[in-house]
Amino acid sequence: MNSIVKSQKKTVIVTGASRGLGLAICNQLLQEKYFVVAISRSLSNELSNLCDGHPLSIAHLPYDLANLDDIHTLCKAIIEEFGRPYALVNNAAVGHDGVLATMHNSEINSLLNINVQAPILLSKYLSRSMMLNRTGRIINISSIIASTGFSGLSVYAASKAAIEGFTRSLSREVGKAGITVNCVAPGYMQTEMTSSLQGEKLESVKRRSPLGRLASPADAASAVLYLMSEQAKSMTGTIMTVDAGSTA
Asked: Which of 74, 85, 231, 238 is 20 to 30 A (C-alpha) from 247?
């Protein structure tokens, strides 16, 4: 683990931090003077540069969230090294694009483990520290696909709908302890996960937006930062959509 000692700043744990939305969230958190524990399977060049530029404010922990059995050990180690967290951002997700009838069961299990079970387990173990602090933020990253559906993404859509239901119910469980639980549901963004969205398909998505464009990872990250803030202390159990209006 990183040798950084416990920080006086509010500690935020971000999963799927190596690229795309996760990287944008880490970047904005650092700008707002949080201490970031960035979790990803590997250290991308972009995340490495971010760590090098903020050596006292961010620590990278390599971990594969498909390994559900050791998530409790991971959470315990984070708390021991960096102190009780202020917030958890469950961003890591996979999206196997394919018709359900031809998807292998292993792909379905992998997607549900990473997209649903891992966020639930992380929330379970880390919310205990937040309860002791009598304050905290849990922010889950969903998708507009949870409510709109999309051909070839039925299992992914199911996983994100599960996270939204989890968010609403957990907010009721932990609210009296001063913890808010919310979702950010981005629309289509130009990230690695949507790299197959090109040409006419991409243009048709843009045309559906009243703004005539896609939302960016920075746009969705800004919503996460708002929910993290004191200004959002009365927001909980909500789904915040960031899609340039495409579902309006």
From this structure: 231
